[in-house]
TrEMBL record:
<keyword id="KW-0234">DNA repair</keyword>
<keyword id="KW-0378">Hydrolase</keyword>
<keyword id="KW-0255">Endonuclease</keyword>
<keyword id="KW-0540">Nuclease</keyword>
<keyword id="KW-0227">DNA damage</keyword>
<dbReference type="GO" id="GO:0004519">
    <property type="term" value="F:endonuclease activity"/>
</dbReference>
<comment type="function">
    <text>This protein is involved in the repair of mismatches in DNA. It is required for dam-dependent methyl-directed DNA mismatch repair. May act as a 'molecular matchmaker', a protein that promotes the formation of a stable complex between two or more DNA-binding proteins in an ATP-dependent manner without itself being part of a final effector complex.</text>
</comment>
<protein>
    <recommendedName>
        <fullName>DNA mismatch repair protein MutL</fullName>
    </recommendedName>
</protein>
<feature type="domain" description="DNA mismatch repair protein S5">
    <location>
        <begin position="200"/>
        <end position="315"/>
    </location>
</feature>
<comment type="similarity">
    <text>Belongs to the DNA mismatch repair MutL/HexB family.</text>
</comment>
């Protein structure tokens, strides 16, 4: 494989969880309503099965080429635009450091087609059986780049990172069914839901949860959160999304804590999921495709919107 692809792979797939995110994003981009993810050995083997629109046999090899995105027209998606350098790179990057078996069938096609790629070297295309959608099996991750293999953490740690990423993706796509298997064992089955609130209750396994909204100038916040008796021991149960993308943000996390301040004891953390929507011009969505951090033009507006979304409900409720 081209060195340039392997370098890109270092950016896009530092860890198995990142490549799982890329594969599942592709399934969602392909309008899948069901996504099944199986992973083994800390994510060195990953299989993603979707029922999305599929690819034509001609598109199979193309999808593994660098910059072979079929999404170039989606200029309205600012997040994608800002990470432009990484568009059409994910599959090429993953293909350069693994063995990939790509099987896909479009609606109306009589059969599925399959392509195998070993570290970027592609096979002929075969006709095979298979239902509508795309299945990507990735194996032998990093076996051609042993240095990178050494950077992987324990299987347990990589598995946890994968499951956390999938949880975030399921939270942000409530209308998609997720089925997740770890080392052959079903660990999560989340059927599609009708609303974000239902999804949060389903995934965080607390019911009922509460919701609230607030707007501060051009920042809109929506939150789903547990009552103050349902608490966590860490801040890891505060999930944050900007433009429906999972982000990490200390300031917004602080806003959630602030809203609960008088309701929680020392060492207790809220359980909440928060969505922030802001004018595309007022947020810098990324510096790096895997880091999930944003820079709000006016962070204090975002802080106040989030705190407000929780407070409006928290202050009325009879805890
Ligand atoms: P990008 O998503 O930025 O376009 P990728 O490297 O992730 O780049 O994917 C390359 C292309 O392969 C996509 O643009 C899409 O056309 C095709 N593709 C990848 N995964 C799927 C999938 N699950 N279903 C349908 N098409 C897919
Ligand atoms: Mg992609």
């Amino acid at each position: 494989p081209e060195v340039v692809d392997q370098i890109a792979a270092g950016e896009v797939v530092e860890r198995p969880a990142h490549l799982v995110k890329e594969l599942v994003e592709n399934s969602i981009d392909a309008k899948a309503t069901r996504v099944h993810v199986e992973f083994f050995d800390g994510g060195r083997i990953v299989k993603v099965i979707d029922n999305g629109k599929g690819m034509s046999p001609e598109d199979l090899p193309k999808s593994l080429e660098r910059f072979a995105t079929s999404k170039i027209s989606k200029t309205d998606d600012l997040w994608k635009l800002k990470t432009f350098g990484f568009r059409g790179e994910a599959l090429a990057s993953i293909a350069s450091v693994s063995k990939i078996t790509l099987t896909s069938r479009r609606e109306g096609d009589e059969q599925a087609h399959q392509l195998v790629s070993e570290y970027g070297k592609k096979s002929e295309i075969d006709k095979v059986g298979g239902s509508q959608g795309t299945t990507i099996l990735m194996e032998n991750l990093f076996e051609n780049t042993p240095a990178r293999l050494k950077f992987l953490k324990s299987d347990a740690a990589e598995n946890t990172a994968i499951k956390t990423t999938l949880k975030a993706m399921a939270l942000s796509h409530f209308d998609v069914e997720f089925r997740i298997q770890e080392n052959g064992k079903l660990v999560n089955f989340w059927p599609a839901c009708k609303s974000r609130k239902d999804r949060v209750e389903q995934i965080l396994e607390i019911k009922p949860m509460y919701e609230g909204e607030a707007v501060r100038e051009n920042v809109k916040a929506y939150a789903v959160f547990a009552d103050p008796h349902n608490v966590a021991k860490t801040a890891r149960n505060i999930w944050m999304f900007a433009q429906n993308r999972w982000i990490q943000d200390r300031s917004l996390q602080a806003a959630v804590n602030e809203a609960y301040r008088s309701l929680l004891m020392h060492g207790e953390y809220p359980i909440a999921a928060v969505w922030v929507e802001v004018d595309p011009d007022c947020v810098d969505v990324n510096i790096h495709p895997t880091k999930s951090q944003v820079k709000f033009q006016n962070p204090s507006l975002a802080f106040r919107a989030v705190a407000g979304a929780l407070r409006s409900t928290l202050e009325q409720a009879p805890w």
